[in-house]
Write a structure and sequence with these properties.
By secondary structure, the protein is of the alpha+beta class. Helix content is 21%, strand content 24%. The strands form four sheets. The chain has a seven-stranded mixed sheet with strand order 3-4-5-6-7-8-9, covered by helices on one side. Strands 10-11-12-13-16-17 form a six-stranded mixed sheet, with no helix packed on it. Bound molecules: zinc ion (2 copies).
């Protein structure tokens, strides 16, 4: 039985149980994150499984959204993509229960887990062990992996081809290793799973690229320009972001172009 409390309650990151747990979570101590008013608190997956479930919602026949209910930590979703060459889990949740394992196995299991960025690493080693699959994390974010398991594979370069035309694209910005998954089959010009790499606004008419979203810290101007130009080179018309309201099913490239034009005007004024 797991007794050590090694999961940060604010961000859901699970630290290695066989090493000393840090006094303060490095993810939440970073400029891009925060602590709640009660400060650093810890739990573990054994405790979480007593009180939390995973809600699975079909977004379309080959795409499912997984979310912890009631909400825990950052409240992100993981996306389960069903693909003929093998299923992919994009990002992760701090809880994994048997019902979810059974559901994913009923769909053919996982061929890989891949990540947008370190805020969503959660308890990835438990997921990877359950499905005996590799975990793809860009090498630029290696310093944020605090619980490195045998399944983690650091990838390098700008683009990593997977299968069925699916690629992981390193974008940077929010984190140097921030990435997105491009899926060619879900929409006419391709869909991007973005995590926090691109952040769809609540009214779905704007897309942000920021160093920190909760703390409203912009990117450095040169990095912002580099990120914008990098995304402009990718073909897409749909975005599935890191949170449940962030489904932009059409016109996403035009919304991105209009959004970043405002960014660039603002930078010119400054
Ligand atoms: Zn944390
Ligand atoms: Zn983030």
């Amino acid at each position: 039985m797991e007794l050590i409390k090694n999961t940060c309650c604010t961000c859901g990151t699970q630290f290695a149980a066989n090493k000393p747990i840090p006094e303060l979570c490095p993810i939440c101590s970073d400029d891009r994150q925060y602590f709640l008013d009660e400060g650093q608190t810890w739990t573990n997956t054994t405790e979480l499984l007593k009180t939390h479930q995973i809600n699975i919602r079909e977004l379309n026949p080959s795409l499912f959204e997984l979310q912890i209910t009631p909400q825990f930590a950052l409240g992100q979703r993981a996306l389960l993509l069903l693909s003929p060459g093998g299923n992919i889990l994009w990002d992760c949740l701090p809880v994994l229960n048997q019902e979810t394992i059974d559901f994913i196995r009923s769909k053919g299991g996982l061929k890989a887990i891949a990540f947008s960025h370190p805020h969503f690493y959660s308890n990835v080693n438990q997921w990877a062990a359950a499905f005996d699959c590799p975990v793809y994390i860009h090498e630029h974010d290696e310093q944020w992996v605090f619980n490195s398991g045998q399944n983690i594979r650091f990838w390098t370069g700008e683009s990593k081809p997977l299968w069925d035309g699916i690629t992981i694209e390193n974008i940077g910005g929010h984190f140097p290793g921030s990435s997105l998954l491009r899926v060619p089959t879900l929409s006419a010009h391709g869909s991007l799973f973005t995590g926090d790499t691109l952040y769809v606004s609540k009214n779905k008419k704007n897309i942000a690229v920021m160093y920190s979203y909760p703390n409203y810290i912009p990117l450095q101007a040169d990095e912002q320009t580099r990120v914008i130009n990098r995304v402009k080179r990718i073909d897409f018309n749909a975005i599935y972001g890191g949170f449940e309201w962030q489904n932009l099913l059409e016109d996403a490239k035009n919304i991105f172009t209009a959004s970043v034009a405002r960014y660039q005007q603002a930078v010119e004024v400054i």
